[in-house]
Amino acid sequence: MRSIVHIGNSDISVKEYNGQRVVTFKDIDMVHGRPDGTARKRFADNRNHFIKGEDFFILKPSDLENAWMSEKRTSGIDEVNPRGTAFITEQGYLMLVKSFTDDLAWDVQRQLVNGYFKTREKVNRALSPELQMLQGLLSQMVEKELADKERDRQIAIAQETADKAVATTESIKEAVKPVFDNWRSEINLKFNRIQRNAGAEFRMLRSEMYLELERRAGCDLNTRLRNKRNRMVEDGCTKTKVSALNKMDVIEDDKKLREIFSKIVTEYEIRYCA
């Protein structure tokens, strides 16, 4: 149930943010009997004198949604403007109504300060040292519980992100592997077609294709093959597996080489099979 405080001839609902009571421009206009928009205009005219976080706060819907996991908890604030609603602290209120000098203004200021803003402090001072200590312990427990919940939430998010990353990586591997396998098969099919038409000349043509690849890519296939075999030996691969390695394995390992070599083989296929 929302708490109500009677000020002057009006009732305003108790609103708290960040451990202190706050009011809205509408509350100020209402208790002072001023036209709607008066307090907002005074604030806008003197905006450079007000300090955000001390004299006022701007709350958006997202602030209310995340309040349960924040130290800046709210009370009595159920709805705010999507673009942000201003909430004025006691200090900000006293600065804002400096120019309100009529009798009602003086009376309302006293009532609002003593009957609204100071009430929370009075309640705390009225507690015995034991109850104050208990209140402090309870506050610490609440803050720890909120911190634990936020930590668990962040861990869950991180785990979910990691799981998605692993799943994505596996999907990529599965999607790419058939492409590599298919590339080797397609090249071998083209080789077979060229060999059927070129006959004994094919061995020489194949060497020509490798040389053309080295020219276009600016690489040395023999050096790459030797380096790859050395790495396999260091990794503990068997001699049979190392000896079976050939230039096609070197080309297949490099995307750029695969693309260039595919064009070269296609050119030879057109030349000998068209």
How would you portray this structure in words?
This protein is mainly alpha-helical. Helix 8 (202-217) crosses helix 12 (255-273). The longest helix is centred in the middle third of the chain and has 70 residues, at 129-198. The strands form three sheets. Strands 4-3-6 form a three-stranded antiparallel β-sheet, with no helix packed on it. It has helices at residues 25-31, 38-45, 61-65, 90-96, 103-117, 119-126, 129-198, 202-217, 221-234, 239-244, 247-252, 255-273; strands at 4-7, 10-13, 15-17, 20-22, 56-59, 74-75, 85-88. Strand 1 (4-7) and strand 2 (10-13) form a beta hairpin. The protein folds into two domains: 4-126, no CATH class; 176-273, no CATH class. It contains twelve helices and seven strands. It starts with a strand and ends with a helix.
